[in-house]
Amino acid sequence: MYKLLFNTVLRRLDPEFAHLLASSVIKALPLADAALRPFLRPHKNLRTVALGREFTTPFGLAAGFDKNATQITGLGLLGFGHVEIGTLTMHAQPGNPKPRLFRLVKDSALINRMGFNNSGSAAAVSHITKAKIRPNRPVIGVNIGKSKITPLADAADDYVFSATLLTPFADYLVVNVSSPNTPGLRELQQLNTLAKLVRRVQSAAGTTPVLLKIAPDLSDTHIEQIVTLALDAQLRGIIVTNTTVARDNLSTADAKISAIGAGGLSGKPLATKALQVLRRVRAAVPTESDFTIIAAGGVSSAQDVLERLAAGAHLVQGYSGFIYNGPLWAHKINRELVKLGYRGNAA
Ligand SMILES: Cc1cc2nc3c(=O)[nH]c(=O)nc-3n(C[C@H](O)[C@H](O)[C@H](O)COP(=O)(O)O)c2cc1C
């Protein structure tokens, strides 16, 4: 049904307009909570404990869909066990000029150069607060990044501002140093800079778990060094991965890809690479450690979720699959996980 709607109507709409339309519907969903919840609630077999929280399912929504935290309740209702809001920055900012979001339908992929369009950390507080007091809410991750106007040398102050403000409302906090669309941001993955940054955020966050989100375009050595750094800084986990700047494994015509230009590629073509980085990270984390690994990148089915859990992830996230599979995507994945016999560690 959604596939038909997508192929006949949605794919003809400007991707950002379609996102706006979907967001308005998701915001209104809590009005139908009583009717929808019994049908959409994840099966109890999927209950999973991680980061000191109980998740209704290991599957959640990756950062970037609900940048301003206005859709948390509706997204939870649709079956996501956690919703990672943001990326939020210290200063509200419009993001890059449009167009900045592109569908590669043949590849079930997206290219985006949104550039952290968001209303700023302070504006998100009241939205998160409202979502937090709702019963049956999803776990809420808060992803923070650097404002475009903040010079790279002052990046840590920008992150610490957001961390200090948002920590009281976050179930976990994510330091995003891996989006390709803020000039210089990924340079923060350099070890010296990163060590100082995460220590400052960690101390601002107090007891709230802090995780780091990394790019898929790092060398194996760099990945291992980042994991060591995260363990040394006593971060609680890592998210692998953000979008890639590579353009590998695509069926879409080269001319179309070049016309789109810069941006991060997500969706199915990212799957193999993201899985490789996940395996690399898993191998670098001592087995006895309670460091939480969240896998993202190219997940579209319950089998993909299981593959990542088997590769060592504790939780799994998706974004692009939501665009291609529609509003019942998380529900279908949850149902399929149960059918495939998966049991969460708290079931
Ligand atoms: C349109 C779009 C916007 C995104 N914005 C963010 C963001 O603000 N912060 C972030 O950490 N990741 C962002 N991401 C990356 C996703 O969270 C995720 O890591 C990536 O898309 C890989 O997962 P997927 O293949 O399931 O989409 C964005 C992705 C897309 C497609």
Q: Give me the side-by-side strand order of the main sheet.
A: 3-13-12-10-9-8-7-4
- Indicate the CATH architecture: Alpha-Beta Barrel
Number of helices: 13
H and E order:
HHHEEEHEEEHEHEHEHEHEHEHEHH
* CATH class identity: Alpha Beta
Radius of gyration from the CA trace?
Answer: 19 Å
Mean pLDDT over the residues = 96
Shape from CA axes?
globular
Count of domain modules: 1
Strand composition percent: 15-25%
CATH superfamily: Aldolase class I
Structural class: alpha/beta
Bound molecules: flavin mononucleotide
Helicity range of the residues?
25-40%
Described by strand count, sense and barrel closure, the largest sheet is: 8 strands, parallel
CATH topology name, in short, is TIM Barrel
Uncertain spans, ≥5 residues at pLDDT below 50?
none
Calculate the terminal CA-CA distance, rounded to whole Å.
32 Å
The count of DSSP E runs of length 2 or more, i.e. the number of strands, is 13
Describe this structure in words.
The protein is an alpha/beta fold. 39% of the residues lie in helices and 16% in strands. It has helices at residues 2-8, 15-28, 33-40, 72-77, 121-132, 155-166, 191-205, 220-232, 254-260, 271-284, 302-310, 320-325, 329-339; strands spanning 48-50, 53-55, 59-61, 82-88, 101-104, 109-112, 139-144, 172-176, 210-214, 237-240, 264-267, 292-295, 315-318. Helix 8 (220-232) crosses helix 10 and helix 11 (302-310) packs across helix 13 (329-339). The structure holds flavin mononucleotide. Flavin mononucleotide is lined by residues 62-64, 67, 86-87, 101, 110, 112, 114, 116, 143, 176, 179, 213, 242-243, 266-267, 270, 296-299, 318-321.
